[in-house]
Amino acid sequence: MLLDELIQKGWGMGSGISLFIMAGVAQTILWQTFSPGTGLFVGSLQSFLQGQQTLMQWVVGGGGYGGLVGFIATIIAFLIIIYIEGVRVELPLTYAGYKGFRSRYPIKLLYVSNLPVIFASALFANVFFFSQLIWSTAGRPAPGQNILIDILGQYDANATLVGGLAYFVTAPHGIMEVWGDPLRAAVYLGILVAFCAIFSVIWLEVGGLGPS
């Protein structure tokens, strides 16, 4: 709470919650890249150097670790977000009661911050959770045996998600999954953007942050 209050007063970027999330993501990236374990190292870089991964697996991802492409893309995304976070749109204001005194009112480009993304991700996680719960409760039917369950989520014999609504609201893991099923990646991106826009409008109206 203290960290969040300090950041809200201008001693930082975003909010305290956002920084905790970013710290967790940064920890995961460093752990999966350089982390040592017992015996052989478990980080993706060390796994490649010790011959546990091929060059292709290390570049695009494989063996349970992220690839070089994903690592570079994450750094680029960080830089873009940091830049956009600092962008302000200054609206000119004129005060009629003060003989036409003029000033500017800065508005952040990312006005609603990362809350819509958090809300959308939480909604997608609930869809996945309930689809798996209903599938397990119904006796783990194979795809095609129950139409209603197939609409919510389809799973194979290994409990791997292979279709349904839950399949399209679950992010692909790595560039190879995107390459293998580009339709899923495009649909997921479209649904994510649409729900982020919806939650942004709802958050502005509920929080009283709208223009009115």
Keywords for this entry:
two-stranded antiparallel ribbon, mainly alpha, two-stranded antiparallel sheet, extended, 212 residues
What is the compact description of this entry?
This protein has 212 residues and is mainly alpha-helical.
Description:
Helix content is 57%, strand content 10%. By secondary structure, the chain is mainly alpha-helical. The mean pLDDT is 77. The chain has helices at residues 2-8, 16-34, 44-49, 55-60, 68-85, 115-137, 147-152, 165-168, 175-180, 182-206, and strands at residues 88-95, 101-108, 154-155, 161-163. Strands 1-2 form a two-stranded antiparallel ribbon. A two-stranded antiparallel sheet has the order 3-4.
What topology emerges from the helices and strands here?
Blueprint: H1 2-8, H2 16-34, H3 44-49, H4 55-60, H5 68-85, E1 88-95, E2 101-108, H6 115-137, H7 147-152, E3 154-155, E4 161-163, H8 165-168, H9 175-180, H10 182-206
Antiparallel strand pairs: 1-2, 3-4
Helix pairs in contact: 6-10
Poorly predicted runs of 5 or more residues: none
Count the strands?
Answer: 4
**What class would the helix/strand composition place it in?**
mainly alpha
Distance between the termini: 30 Å
Mean pLDDT: 77
SSE order, one letter for each helix or strand: HHHHHEEHHEEHHH
Give the C-alpha Rg. Answer: 23 Å
Give the strand line-up of the largest sheet.
Answer: 1-2
- Beta-strand percentage? 5-15%
Q: Tell me, briefly, the overall form.
A: extended
Helical run tally: 10
Q: Report the helical percentage.
A: 55-70%
Largest sheet: 2 strands, antiparallel
